[in-house]
Amino acid sequence: MARVAVIGTGLGGLAAAARLAALGHAVTVLEQAPEVGGKLGWFARGGHGFDTGPSLVTLPQVYRDLFAATGGPLEDAVELVRVDPAVAYRFADGTPLVLPGSSVEVPAAIDTALGPGTGAQWAALMARAAAMWRITEQPFLRSPLAGAATLARLARSGSDVATVAPWRTLRGLARAHLQHPHLRTLLDRYATYSGSDPRRAPAVLATVAYVEQAFGSWYVRGGLRRLAEAVAERAADRGARIRTGSAVERVLVEGGRVAGVRLAGGEELRADVVVCGADAAGLYAGLLPPHRATRRVRRHLARSTPSLSGFVLLLALCGRTAGWAHHTVLFPEDYDAEFDAVFGVGRFRGAPQPAPDPTVYISSPDDPATRPDPDSESWFVLVNAPRHDPGRGVDWDTPGLADRYAAQVLDTLARRGLDVRDRLRWCVVRTPADLERDTRSVGGSIYGTSSNGTRAAFLRPGNAGPVPGLFLVGGSAHPGGGLPLVALSAEIAAGMIGPA
Questions:
Q1: Which of 360, 307, 354 is nearest to 333 (CA)?
Q2: Is the confidence at residue 316, as pLDDT, over 80?
Q3: What phi and psi values does residue 259 have, to the nearest 5 degrees?
Q4: pLDDT recorded at residue 429
Q5: pLDDT confidence of 146, banded at 50, 70, 90?
Q6: Of all helices (H) and strands (E), which one includes residue 386?
Q7: How distant, in Å, are the alpha carbons of 20, 112, 187 from that of 116?
Q8: Is beta strand 87-90 parallel, antiparallel or unpaired with respect to 96-99?
Q9: Which pLDDT score is estimated for 164?
Q10: How far apart are CA 83 and CA 55, in angstroms?
């Protein structure tokens, strides 16, 4: 039986704790915040409630596998509700596109919105994405990183390489398959699921769209924070000890391997294994002492492009919006200008800034747990944003900046036909700087490093760290961000550690 210290109670850390405790290890989970969940947070005031991180679950089978491996069915712990329609889109010219929750109905919906033949274009692309998924799921998403061998696993045949096309970008794939400009915009959006730029992100990210449509989008009744609470309860039931309000300030290394962690108050917790669910860049920059074994990883992270962050408004609204969808996305006229701004490239080269005309994403579940009465709504409003980077980029703590940009986002909503300013009870603003403080993600980068470039996409920080006894899970480690992938990172790490 190994003594295991898990840093962070994001779903990657909690899933690792549950699996390792079920395998018989002595597990202690350490969380700086007063509650579990990490980026899967919850904010409540005056009867209004908001998920402040992910708003849907895809690939629920990954969580069914987690719960089955640790003691009982997922559905005994949470209530999953299929989201249908999945998303209501509105393009800059006012064209609406409502995507059904069932993949078989999607082509017809696209034909209705964008014209005959457009549904077939999208269906052909999804067929290509399905083939990409079959090729990459087991050798990449469910297996540990193995350096260059990771990419070699994808090269089992020439036809597989041609299908995945690692040299092609997501934007390039769109140009090859999609003639309608709105469909290209739609595919571009899936780069943001990994905090990336579609002009640099790999074509294989089309699998995100495929997974969302093939396996459905799901909501957890009561808010997605219930999923984090359920995994924490499962870990505790298996014997894990969860300590909130316990910030880790150092990973201890002795004799060339990890020896435990030191907490902010000076307490040292000895451990044979340390599983880090915190941001990988933060781990290597601040939690680990200088060590020659970590130099290569530090250099790689320094060369990588950090993922984008998010600027969030939590809107408590009176009244209800007729015909409102669970998820709504309002696209700008110039999507490239948005990516240029948040990454500081192109027309904003070297000077990242809040996008002047951003895409606006709105999540508003029809769930009594999120509102004080039937005649009210709670909107989580997100726009892509540059990370918090004082001195070299955007300092989100600059006095007045957050309030000015919040007003700009509300104005953007109004211009696109959703003026809610006269319905506003109150508004809470959350910036990338707030995300950094709350979750210790460097700069508030949601996914650690972006997938801008093939190597960045396929060679994220590995689950086995360069110091013996150190393991990484969560959205900044392999295989990437998003609720299903962080659970897979925990499955990979637990498999490498093995039973007691």
A1: 360
A2: yes
A3: -125, 0
A4: 98
A5: low
A6: none
A7: 52, 7, 19
A8: antiparallel
A9: 86
A10: 11
What is the spatial distance between Cα 476 and Cα 423, in angstroms, rounded to a whole number?
38
**CA angle (461 as vertex; 167, 195 as ends), nearest 5:** 60
How far is Cα 53 from Cα 382, in angstroms, rounded to an integer?
A: 10
- As a residue count, the chain comes to 500
Q: Is the CB of residue 290 less than 8 Å from the CB of residue 451?
A: no
Q: DSSP alpha helices (H): ranges in 45-100?
A: 60-70
85: preceding bond cis by omega (within 30 degrees):
yes
Q: Does the structure show a pLDDT above 80 at 220?
A: yes
Asked if 70 and 236 touch (Cβ cutoff 8 Å), the reply is no
Kindly tell me the number of DSSP H helices and DSSP E strands found in the chain: 17, 19
Single-letter residue type at 242? I
- Read off the amino acid at residue 134: R
Q: Which domains does the chain have, with CATH numbers?
A: 3-40+57-79+221-304+453-497 (3.50.50.60), 103-216 (no CATH), 306-442 (no CATH)
The per-residue pLDDT for range 74-127, each reduced to its tens digit, is 999 999 999 999 999 999 999 999 999 999 999 999 999 999 999 999 999 999
Are 456 and 138 in contact, with CB atoms under 8 Å apart?
A: no
C-alpha separations of 81 from 56, 58, 63, 275, 367 in Å: 10, 11, 14, 32, 11
For the record, the structure tokens of 243 come out as: 């300590």
DSSP E strand boundaries for 84-144? 87-90, 96-99
Residues 60-73: tens digit of each pLDDT: 999 999 999 999 99
The token duo for 388 is 């918090």
Residue carrying structure tokens 């067929």: 127
Model-wide pTM > 0.85: yes
In the chain, pLDDT over 90 holds for what percent of residues? 84
406-445: b (≥16 Cβ within 10 Å) or e? bebbbebbeebebebeebeeebbebbbbbbbebbbbbbbb
pLDDT, average across residues 328-338: 97
Residue type, 409: V
The number of C-alpha atoms within 13 Å of 241 and in the hemisphere containing its C-beta is: 10
Q: Can you read off the two tokens belonging to residue 162?
A: 């041609």
Q: Do 188 and 170 meet the contact criterion of CB atoms below 8 Å apart?
A: yes
pLDDT tens digits, one per residue of 17-48: 999 999 999 999 999 999 999 999 999 999 99
Q: What is the pLDDT of residues 246-304, one digit of tens each?
A: 999 999 999 999 999 999 999 999 999 999 999 998 999 889 988 787 888 888 887 78
Gap between the Cα atoms of 282 and 299, Å rounded: 14
Q: What is the DSSP letter of 210?
A: H
Confidence of residue 370 (pLDDT cuts 50, 70, 90): very high
CA 443 – CA 445 distance, rounded (Å): 5
Query: How is residue 173 written in tokens?
Result: 């794939």
Separation between Cα atoms, residue 341 and residue 361, nearest integer Å: 17
pLDDT in the model for residue 225: 95
